[in-house]
Design a protein that fits this description.
It contains five helices and 33 strands. The protein has helices at about 15-30, 35-45, 45-65, 75-100, 165-175, and strands at about 115-120, 125, 130-140, 140-145, 150-160, 175-180, 185-190, 200-210, 215-220, 225, 230-240, 240-245, 250-255, 260-265, 270-275, 275-280, 285-290, 290, 295-310, 310-325, 330-335, 340-345, 345-355, 355-360, 365-370, 380-385, 385-390, 395-405, 410, 420, 425-430, 440-445, 450-454. It is flat. About 30% of the residues are buried.
């Protein structure tokens, strides 16, 4: 084919580069199951435009060097390939979103195959107090609990599928569970798992002495740990994590499921991502990071609660009450010490904070109240949102409340109070009673309410 100048027209390298990039992404995802192509596409889709531009620049330079005709901006074949790639990536995004929203749904379709199952108990192993037991399985639930004796006992629940019953049984025979001694305990894991022709699942039920440290990892399955006095580390790539009534430090990492940790004597650290998160009755510190698409509920943490999530940073000391957190709302109540909240695009409610209260919000409504007269300073800063503060009528404090493009309303009256609601700013300053802690409230736009409770 020739163009108007008589030169030979070159085909573009864009299609080849696109296929190479897509193949590398699929290959990487194959060996790293936690890697999400759909999320990468949603965030970095402009890279397709950059790749297209680079390919066209190379095409133009090569055509000019060789005297060929300029290649078209986008040929019909390239357009069809680009549309196909975009549809594939969008489909993967929806599929991965569905797995996060419904993590317990198994996406391995083997309903046309035969399935073989068996349960077997492995020989018991003697284990020293304070030893560490590491449990790993690719597909299957892990349950770890305390037994009556001093031995380590393992019950394996195995299943395999194949095109017929004979093939499923053969695959099941190839599966084994190893209990390997380590320098500080045992490593328990399946072996002989071949996923090329069927679905293999190995669930592990572990019974061990109370004075044991535990590590559990499952790529596709739930993890449940209860009753151990040692430390617990758990990570589930595609499943729920539940840890309760344990005496040591706990570290839990989710990916697509829910996380629930309750009744822990030590410190708790939560990371990763997932759906809902629940923490309760923690005697030590609680640290939460990562990203959870559902609700976050925390109650009764004796020491310090630190939370670092998208659009929210919280630090609460001695939270005897509760914290509830979702995509557009933060609510805390009954905090024995100081509370600090930094967030944006969320409404904030704080009730009965005994220590110093510091709230910084953007584009949300802030509501704070206390059944007791404040004994520590209160600082509330908001951008484009209202602030509603309620205190007992017998309180003593110093107040400075400024709304730069709004008004200030107060139920409190005192000779020293000065209230000025001008055309562009509302301001309330002065002292209530004998003075006391400092209260500072500011917002760039919205009304500030200072209410008096009975």
């Amino acid at each position: 084919m020739t163009n108007g100048s008589g030169g030979r027209q070159r085909s573009s390298i864009f299609g080849g580069l696109l296929l190479i990039l897509l193949g590398l992404l699929f290959l990487f995802e194959r060996f790293h199951p936690g890697f999400e192509i759909g999320h990468l596409f949603r965030v970095y889709w402009p890279l397709l435009l950059i790749l297209w531009g680079v390919a066209k620049l190379i095409d133009y330079l090569l055509a000019r060097q060789r005297g060929d005709g300029r290649p078209p901006l986008l040929s019909g074949g390239e357009a069809a390939l680009l549309v196909l790639v975009v549809f594939v990536l969008i489909g993967m995004s929806l599929w991965q979103w569905g797995r996060r929203a419904m993590p317990n749904i198994d996406t391995h379709f083997d309903f046309l195959n035969e399935r073989a199952t068996q349960s077997r108990e492995l020989p018991a192993k003697a284990i020293a107090p304070g030893a560490r037991v590491t449990v790993t399985t690719n597909r299957g639930d892990i349950t770890i609990h305390v037994g009556q004796g001093n031995d380590l006992r393992v019950l394996a629940n195995e299943s395999a599928s194949g095109p017929n019953d004979s093939a499923a049984q053969e695959r099941l025979k190839a599966v084994d569970v190893a209990i390997e001694p380590t320098s500080d305990g045992y490593d328990i894991h399946p072996s002989g798992e071949d996923y090329s022709n069927g679905h293999v699942s190995v669930g592990l039920d572990i019974e061990l002495p109370k004075q044991t440290n535990v590590s559990a990892n499952s790529n596709h399955g739930d993890i449940n740990v209860s009753g151990v006095a040692g430390s617990v580390m758990a990570e589930a790539l595609d499943g729920d994590v539940e840890i309760h009534d344990c005496g040591g430090d706990v570290s839990a990492t989710g990916r697509r499921g829910d996380v629930r940790v309750t009744g822990i004597t030590g410190n708790v650290t939560i990371g990763g991502s997932g759906g809902d998160l629940e923490l309760g009755d923690i005697s030590g510190n609680a640290t939460i990071g990562g990203q959870f698409s559902g609700s976050v509920r925390v109650r009764n943490v004796a020491k310090l609660t630190r939370i670092a999530l998208p659009n929210a940073q919280l630090q609460l000391a001695n939270m005897t009450g509760r914290l509830e957190f979702d995509s557009d709302h933060i609510e805390i109540s009954d905090v024995g010490g100081a509370a600090k909240i930094e967030t944006s695009n969320k409404d904030v409610e704080a009730e009965n904070v005994a220590g110093a209260l510091n709230i910084q919000d953007v584009h949300g409504t802030v509501t704070a109240s206390d059944s007791q007269a404040p004994m520590q300073n209160i600082s509330i800063s908001n951008v484009s949102g209202e602030v509603d503060l309620t205190l007992p009528g017998h309180s003593n404090f110093q107040i400075s409340a400024i709304s730069q493009s709004g008004k200030v309303q107060s139920d409190f009256e005192a000779p020293s109070l000065q209230l000025d609601n001008g055309s562009n700013m509302g301001r309330l300053t002065g002292r209530i009673g004998t003075g006391g802690p400092s209260i500072s409230v500011t917002t760039t736009y919205g009304t500030i309410y200072l209410r008096k409770s009975s």
